[in-house]
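Technical note accompanying the year-one report. For the benefit of new consortium partners, we illustrate the data format agreed upon in the data management plan: each record pairs a sequence with a structure-token string. No post-processing was applied to the example shown here.
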Amino acid sequence: MKKNTLIRFYNLPGNFKPILTKAVKKTLKLKRNIRRSEINIILISDKAIKKLNNKFRKVNRITDVISFCYSSKPLVGEIYIAKERSKLQAKEQKHTWKKELIYLVIHGILHLLGFTDYTKNNSKKMFSKQNFVFKNL
């Protein structure tokens, strides 16, 4: 059966969209039962993501990425990425902002698929999958 994926980008550089689309689709392939999906990827300020994190997770700090899954079948969700934080992390990791955004999009999609990184064991599994997808782009 053909997969139907709708991806919308907000506030992201246009030249990043093809690789980010590829990252979304590769990550979704980890779950074979995803036939339809609708995902919004939104770049927002650190201040705005801190508000979301506080409101919905009761964590009063900036995070790099936060995901909201509204439906699992079809998969419907949103991924918010902190602009300033992601640029800072790219510098700290000594790679490009584009590469950092790819990692964060993959990470956000994994959250939409039900993966978590709240425990050491879960985090290890999730980052292993994240690295696997990144290397296979």
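Partners are asked to follow this layout when depositing records. Helices lie at 17-28, 46-57, 83-93, 97-112, 120-135.
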